[in-house]
Design brief:
One of its GO terms (cellular component) is nucleoplasm. Keywords: Iron, Iron-sulfur, Metal-binding, Mitochondrion, Transit peptide. This is NFU1 iron-sulfur cluster scaffold homolog, mitochondrial. Belongs to the NifU family. Monomer and homohexamer; the apo-NFU1 is a monomer, while the holo-NFU1 is a hexamer composed of a trimer of dimer that is probably linked by some 4Fe-4S cluster. Interacts with HIRA and EPM2A/laforin. Interacts with BOLA3. Interacts with HSPA9. The radius of gyration is 21 Å and the shape is globular. The protein is of the alpha+beta class. It folds into two domains: 143 residues, 2-Layer Sandwich (Ribosomal Protein S8, Chain: A, domain 1); 84 residues, GMP Synthetase, Chain A, domain 3. Strand 3 and strand 4 form a beta hairpin. The longest helix is centred in the last third of the chain and has 20 residues. 28% of the residues lie in helices and 25% in strands. It is built from five helices and eleven strands. The strands form two sheets. Strands 1-2-3-4-7-6-5 form a seven-stranded antiparallel sheet, with helices on one face. Helix 2 packs antiparallel against helix 3.
Length: 253
């Protein structure tokens, strides 16, 4: 540990913008395989009373989707909700999402309460090439002090409504308390879209959108849990967006 500490101090003394490291260099075990330490140079004395160093420690965590990576900036992203930006046009209300879409190879962006999930266009894009630009964009944005969301966007959560009957209320409660927290751990989310003829319609977001195991998540995870607690639920159906932005039901029955 002493040798590692000396190495870290030496690297920090170079005054470079980034110092990349993995926790395994310090003989530690973690679920976050990669970390990024962003170090900003001190502001001029005329700008602040004392010279300061602005730092951000950004962790990355793999998701079940190999094309999605979860970035954890160590600070709040959204207060208590999630937001999915499947296209650059959908990012009209978020300066941070717009900046991330400017990085070549980024397909979609998803915000959680304390994380950002970025999905790349395809497996042909190497994360080692994309990550430096994503790190820099996240760090520079939070250093700017700008709000993550600047315009009111429609809510897409599972909040209860006065029109909900008892079964729908139970479905939403299970989604909020038992299912969504688990899905968000994997860098995604699941949004309630409707309940008709015993079928619960759900929309997957973030890393879950194009994940190869999304159907398994729906059938073996979400559907089984809903059916166990709510006998009225006969199945789960995925709702997706086509290229024109029109929602349609996926073949998940």
């Amino acid at each position: 540990m002493a040798a590692a500490a000396r190495w870290l101090r030496a690297a920090a003394g170079l005054g470079g913008r980034f110092c990349r490291m993995t926790l395994k260099d310090f003989n530690l075990t973690t679920k976050q395989p990669l970390c990024q330490f962003a170090r900003r140079k001190p502001f001029p004395p005329s700008t602040v009373a004392h010279n300061t160093v602005r730092c951000m420690f950004i962790q990355t965590q793999d998701t079940p989707n190999p094309n999605s990576l979860k970035f954890i900036p160590g600070r709040q992203v959204l207060e208590s909700r999630t937001m999915d930006f499947s296209t650059p046009a959908a990012a009209f209300c978020s300066p941070l999402a717009r900046q991330l879409f400017r990085i070549e190879g980024v397909k979609s962006v998803f915000f959680g309460p304390d994380f950002i999930t970025v999905t790349k266009v395809s497996e042909d894009w190497d994360w080692n090439l994309l990550k430096p630009d994503i790190y820099a964009t996240i760090m520079d944005f939070f250093a700017s002090g700008l709000p993550v969301i600047t315009e009111e966007a429609p809510r897409t959560d599972t909040a209860a409504s006065e029109d909900d009957d008892e079964v729908v209320l139970m479905i939403k409660e299970l989604l909020d308390t038992r299912i969504r927290p688990t899905v968000q751990e994997d860098g995604g989310d699941v949004i309630y879209k409707g309940f008709e003829d015993g079928i619960v319609q759900l929309k997957l977001q973030g890393s879950c959108t194009s994940c190869p195991s999304s159907i398994i998540t729906l059938k073996n995870g979400i559907q089984n849990m809903l059916q166990f607690y709510i006998p009225e639920v006969e199945g789960v159906e995925q709702v997706v967006d086509d290229e024109d932005g029109v929602e349609k039901e996926a073949n998940s029955t």
